[in-house]
Amino acid sequence: MNRIRKGDEVIVIAGRSKGLRGHVLRVDGEKLLVENVNMVKKHQKPNPAMNRGGGIVEKEAPIHNSNVMLFNPATGKGDRVYYKTLEDDRKVRIFKSNGEAVDI
């Protein structure tokens, strides 16, 4: 079970995008695609079959999951999480700092 999932709000703790926040768009193993984080410029060839023009486009690049932390809205900072099994055998993620559940 991954500590960070699609749709989570994360904060970048290392790299050139340090301090930026965003929602996770995609998870590919240990790499995450976070909106408006780690923006790169890509030189793109035109593709008339897909109705796509060429030029320089700006898009998100993947970032390693060790460089982000789950954002805790109660504290306003990044936070670690741990797993706890409830009585009905569901695993939920819990913030370490205040003990609140991430998943509902």
Question: What can you see in these coordinates?
Answer:
This protein is mostly beta strands and 104 residues long. Helices cover 0% and strands 46% of the residues. Strands 6-3-2-1-7-8 form a 6-stranded antiparallel β-sheet, with no helix packed on it. A two-stranded antiparallel ribbon has the order 4-5. Strands 9-10 form a two-stranded antiparallel sheet. The protein is elongated. The mean pLDDT is 93.
How do the SSEs run, as a string of H and E? EEEEEEEEEE
User: What's the overall average pLDDT, rounded?
Assistant: 93
CATH architecture of the domain at 9-78: Roll
Largest sheet: 6 strands, antiparallel
Helix content: under 10%
Here the CATH topology of the domain at 9-78 equals SH3 type barrels
What characteristics describe this protein?
six-stranded antiparallel β-sheet, elongated, single chain, 0% helix, mainly beta, two-stranded antiparallel sheet, 104 residues, SH3 type barrels, 46% strand
Brief overview, please?
The chain has 104 residues and is an all-beta fold. The chain contains no helices and ten strands. It is 0% helix and 46% strand.
Topology:
Elements lengths: L8 E4 L8 E8 L2 E4 L4 E6 L10 E6 L2 E2 L3 E5 L4 E3 L1 E5 L5 E5 L9
Antiparallel strand pairs: 1-2, 1-7, 2-3, 3-6, 4-5, 7-8, 9-10
